[in-house]
Specification:
With about 230 residues, this protein is an alpha+beta fold. The strands form three sheets. The protein has a three-stranded antiparallel β-sheet, with no helix packed on it. It has a two-stranded parallel sheet with strand order 2-5. Strands 3-4 form a two-stranded antiparallel sheet. Strand 6 and strand 7 form a beta hairpin. It starts with a helix and ends in a 13-residue tail after the last helix.
Amino acid sequence: MMTPEHLRTGSIPPVPAKLTANTMTPEELAALTKPEVYRKEEVAWFMTCSDPRWELSNMAGGMALYWPLVRCRENQWNSSEQLYQATKYGSDIICLPQSAPDADPSVRRRIQAQPSPRGAKLTQKCAVKAGLVRSDWEDPIQEVRIRSMLWVLELKLYWNPMTFGRVLAETGSRPIVEISTKDPFWGCRVAEGGTLHGSNVLGKLLESVRSRSLEVRRGQFSSGEGFLLP
């Protein structure tokens, strides 16, 4: 039987995932994007790299992912943020930043090669400005970016069960909230009185992955084919 360890080491070829991509229902999307109000003392929150649950953040480093599911340098993504950002572009998209005219023209390869999540965001600014992001990314209901994030978080758990997986499990059954000063969609802002307000989509997706952690660790992902465009 093929095990996750076989896939990680590349000792035998991986088999195609059995699950296929599924669309989210309008009800599921509505629940994910619904504005919420939380009390900070009742949730498992994280905000900065000095917080004990920083591993839950996509900006946390030191937790590589591999896609396709064979552990090798060619398939390595240095953080979940990098793989998520790469799903915005097809493999044929090229755009050179003016500040680095000798860089690799492939936007996706540059994102993958960055040593940090922040670098992955910065290196694609020229592509965003040029309107080269995949056409369905800006859909008003944001289904593609939400499903892409869910898939990336599943891979993060699959490849990092002793770091990300441990911290995720330690949240127990509490709501998970990313506190953000800028983004009330993926996280929550601190409001007057100390309550947390926002859609908290990232936190809700983390809770979903937490609830299915055994299946995810076995390689049962919400999207068997992934979200990287050809």
